[in-house]
Amino acid sequence: MHFLMGTAVSAAAATTDATNHADTAWILVSSALVLLMTPGLAFFYGGMVRGKNVLGMLAQNFVTMGTVSVLWVLGVYSLAFQGGNGLIGSLKNFGLNHIWMQPSGLSLSIPPMVFVAFQLMFAIITPALITGGTADRLKFGSWVAFSSLWLILVYAPVAHWVFSPLGWLAKKGAEDFAGGTVVHANAGAAALAVCLVIGKRKGWPKERMRPHNVPFILLGAGLLWFGWFGFNAGSALSANTLSAYAFVNTNTATAAALLAWMLTEKLRDGHATTFGAASGAIAGLVAITPACGFVSPMGSIVIGLAAGVICCLATGLKNIFKFDDALDVVGVHLVGGILGALLIGLFGTAMVNGANGVFYHGGWTLMGHQILAVAAVVAYSFIVSYILALLIEKTVGFRVSEEDEVAGLDLSQHAETAYESASMSDGSRFLSNFTSSK
């Protein structure tokens, strides 16, 4: 029986094998690169929080890798990419049944299972991005519940709208090569919504909450930059000239944004920082993500410069409007994702891919499509995320108690600390209570 089943599986694999093995290899490598981005994000965020919360941040990101991977197979992939209508897909591929079927509306040179793996990595990092806005104050179990529901109710529909050829925004002509709206603006809007529900960290903004480990920040940014080549260039879904454009545009915009952010810091504060260099690189990566397969390398320089300046200044929005976006998810991911998506309307060129924008004699049609996509995704994500966060807060509670927040998430949520020599002044009473209860 096992032999017969193995033969059947082998036969099915042979009939659905890739028409291009180079494409298959490239997308599998790209999938691994994108998965690496989530641990990179964990270190990037982990370095930015205070030492008593670093394991809490890493735990939120790593558990997201677990929950999303399982839910993706159970049905979220199918809801995003298989059948359905303009708003949501079907459950034809529930449990990855009938996975020999191509994603609806696509004719790929890679096996559908490879496409499943690649898109899974996008689905993992998107909710993980939200954790930067809510750092230092979330209950671990509540985060697991929220991120799981959010994946089903927000990520799956938005991915279907934009990435699936059947989605209503894709049919309208909106362009998003690798996730400026689906990933970054989507996560940024959700982070803002949750921040407003759970409120400010204890002591913010009067207390200065400095990053506890800047080398971690730079390590995380480096891993993100590296993995982002799979994120963007892999989105060509083939090893071809378009993937090379996306690769070069990604690196060029990132470099330009890094320089622009540091220059903005220098002019505003009198000095450029290593933290700023890392933040500028991430801003450039975010902004070029939707545009990397639609603009020229010269266009990518402009997008990168704009992202470095605008996102640097946008991090001050939380101080103006008094919302505690702890690690600047709104300033970098929401603003950067929107900026990159809209600039396609100016710099998009059919000489690379897609439609012509304003500066390439394409008129304002493409810009109109981009504005519609940004408005729809941001509004939907914010509203549904706000409702989800409010429901969790009113039922099981979304935020840790004041005592647990003072002790830190590492102790209160995970009963461990990142550093043996770390000061326990904030958490000593909690640790004493914890050990005495054993």
Task: Describe the model.
67% of the residues lie in helices and 0% in strands. The chain has 438 residues and is mainly alpha-helical. The longest helix is centred in the last third of the chain and has 30 residues, at 365-394. The protein is globular, with a radius of gyration of 22 Å. The relative contact order is 0.14.
Structure in a nutshell:
With 438 residues, this protein is mainly alpha-helical.
CATH architecture identity of the largest domain: Orthogonal Bundle
Q: How far from one another are the termini? A: 51 Å
Estimated radius of gyration: 22 Å
The CATH homologous superfamily name of the largest domain equals: Ammonium transporter AmtB like domains
Helix amount, in percent?
55-70%
Q: What is the number of domains?
A: 2
Report the CATH topology name of the largest domain: Ammonium transporter fold
Mind describing the biggest β-sheet?
none
Which strand-content bin applies to the residues?
under 5%
CATH class bucket of the largest domain: Mainly Alpha
Average pLDDT level: 92
Query: Topology as H/E string?
Result: HHHHHHHHHHHHHHHHH
How many individual helices?
A: 17
Which structural class should the secondary elements be placed in? mainly alpha
Notable features of this structure?
mainly alpha, Ammonium transporter fold, 17 helices, 0% strand, disordered C terminus
Please specify the SSE layout and strand pairing:
Blueprint: H1 2-15, H2 21-48, H3 54-81, H4 112-130, H5 140-163, H6 168-172, H7 180-198, H8 214-233, H9 241-269, H10 274-288, H11 297-314, H12 317-321, H13 329-347, H14 365-394, H15 402-407, H16 409-414, H17 428-436
Helix pairs in contact: 2-3, 2-4, 2-8, 3-4, 3-5, 4-5, 4-7, 5-7, 5-14, 7-13, 7-14, 8-9, 8-10, 9-10, 9-11, 10-11, 10-13, 11-13, 13-14
